Amino acid sequence: MKHNCIIILLIIILPIVVCAETDFTIPLKHRVIQEKSLQSHKLPIGTKLSNINFTTLGDNKHRLTDLVSKGPVVFVFLSAECPVAQRYAMRLKRMHTEFSKKQVTIVGVYSNENDSIDDVKSYLKKAEYSFPIIKDIDGSLARHLRATMTPQAHLIDKSGVLRYRGPIDDNRYVTRVKHNYLKDAIVAVLNGKPVPIKETPAFGCTIHLPDIPIKKQNTYNIHIQQIIQNTKNIIYVIVISLKW
To answer: What is the DSSP annotation of 174-193?
Structure first.
């Protein structure tokens, strides 16, 4: 009975989302939401980034220009409530252990409006990350880098240029991983070589950012966007329920 109800709900909701939102899909490989390969709103690879200042949960203030002067920086967008992002905890800790010795800085970013500071701190007690963590309260960092998913990585080289954008690897199940996109990109940047795969669609959970002040005439578009976002999150939960 439970599965019948879920299937009926999917039949009702999916056509609405397909018609209203074309930036995401649900491929059979991942069975979770994934970016479509072509999106006009992405930050182009090769973009020079500057004026990014942030404060970590440990109340340490950083400037991107200072960090990249030491080595490449990776912003990884995460979520305390996304099951896919949670599967990457151990992989991220291994990468931090391996690359921190080579002056690579990994920074975890929590931009979801639904992730309160307390939620993030509670999850971090279990994840035990030793790299810096940001609670992107107003979503400004996610908007600046145009992040859309969790988990999603943005690799910036020592000159402050975006060199890779996408998932950490190609499968949320570590035993099925065939391509380590982020690790390969970091190694290439450290060795001064071209990144083999500069960009690939991220998969997992969509980032739900806090609303920002807007002009009155744009209110309708924001409301529609909010409905679409909420609907996508419902579909994600439904898909996960079907799988489990």
So the answer is: GGG----HHHHHHHHHHTT-
- Binned at pLDDT 50, 70 and 90, residue 230 comes out as low
pLDDT digits (tens, 9 = 90+) for 116-163: 999 999 999 999 999 999 999 999 999 999 999 999 999 999 999 999
Contact 92, 118 (CB under 8 A): no
Peptide bond into 151 cis (omega under 30): yes
Can you tell me which residue has the tokens 């240029």?
161
From CA 82, how far away is CA 206, in angstroms rounded? 9
Q: How far, in whole angstroms, is CA 138 from its chain's centroid? A: 16
pTM over 0.85: no
The residue assigned the tokens 């679409």 is 228
CA distance 220 to 239: 29
